[in-house]
Amino acid sequence: MTAQDQQQLGKTLWAIADDLRGAMNADDFRDYMLSFLFLRYLSDNYELASKKELGKDYPRPKEDDKRPPLSAWYAANKNDVVEFEKQMRRKVHYVIEPPHLWSNIAEMARTQNGELLHTLEKGFKYIENHSFDSTFQGLFSEINLSSDKLGKTYEERNAKLCTIIQKIAEGIAKFSTDTDILGDAYEYLIGQFAAGSGKKAGEFYTPQQISTILSKIVTLDSNEYDFTRC
User: Domain 3-229 carries which CATH code?
Assistant: First the structure.
């Protein structure tokens, strides 16, 4: 990632934070942004790997269908889902079910879907408890989806999350999902916003730890998948 790209990424992240200033404070923004960056990274890589795994059976998205293409495959091949997920765990070491993919979460936010909060809760729980080994437990623990900071009622929290995710999705859409982007965004967010929570940057994952996490997530047979082109 070039210095110019890093600078542009920093400006973009700061602009999103500025847009959300009335919705959340700096440390909350950092926690949500980091978690959603991880979810986007994992989702995009998973969809790419799924497309390669299914080959010609991977559905072509219809113009009026905003769901992830993998949703259509799951619906049409219910008897094959268990074996497919077994293969994905073997090859990419994790599974994200279609409703929990970033593309679906972002679309739910855009349309103000009333089930967004429930979907996120289920998605984070599934990814942490059923996809990874113990190394990845707590990956989304910094986000409290039941926090009163989001609202007093479910409806208020859901509406706030729709606003937050829509802003984030629009802001980071033009950036790729490779590990350099994710690592640079992580370092920027920790450096800029750690002080807002009264923590030191060292109390979070270090860039090296993030690199290790990502390498474990995508430890693949080089003859099968190549995520360097993501």
Answer: 1.20.1260.30
- Per residue in 182-205, pLDDT (tens digit) is 666 767 666 766 554 454 434 444
Tell me if 186 sits within 8 A of 139, measured CB to CB: no
Question: pLDDT band for position 116 (50/70/90)?
Answer: very high
Instruction: Determine how many CB atoms are found less than 10 A away from the CB of residue 140.
Output: 22
